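B., you asked whether I could sanity-check this one before it goes into the benchmark set. Here's the sequence:
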Amino acid sequence: MTLQAVLTALLLPPLLLVLLGMAGAGLASRGVRGGLALALVAGFGQFLFATPFVAGTLLASLDPAPEVPRAVAAAPGAIVVLGGDAARSGTGGDVGPLTLERLRAGAALQRRTGLPLLVTGGPNSPGLEPLAHSMARSLREDFGIRARWIEPAAGDTRDNAVLSSAILRPEGIGTVFLVTHGWHMGRAAAAFRRAGLATIPIPVRIDRAPDGRPTDWVPRPDHLAESWFAIREWAGRLVYALRD
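And here's what the prediction gave me:
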């Protein structure tokens, strides 16, 4: 596991809140004032992040607003699908559900346009094959489409952009359809522009913004995961803004 992955796990919910709750309980058991309050706040925060209302609000804050299509310098010459998550399998690695959603959108777009596909993503963890290889295999076996280019080294979104540009620019391609989730599109499109590729965003699964109905307050583990993705994405935007 990389240092970046360790810091991401430690500094974001749910692990951060678990650690704060444990610290608060430990302090309370020693009679330290405020320990119980810290534990209760951490527990309540865990509850909130697991609700559809908070998770949906966080994701909606990242989704791109509907835009009137803008003119680009040239017609897109390729479709770029960004890797997301990976899953372990008997063969050592496979695409995760988020990546599969992106591949499905990329495959549908390829059938409509006939444009060649590029998949990009390095290993998500030690022992797994590069995600781009899993993506290319899924495209071939699940959708009957072959990726023209496979970029297997990218470790983050900026790498996706820089390494994809290094493949496509020598091919004379300066504009691409970019396929990733709506909540990731803002950071991804900006990274590709900085790498010299104009993009036409193809956001995947833009969810409804929650409206506070009773079911929006029923916690579930999958919504805790959505909150984690949203908070990590905001943290990534901040890091990119400071770095670039």
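One thing to flag: The mean pLDDT is 89. Otherwise nothing jumped out at me.
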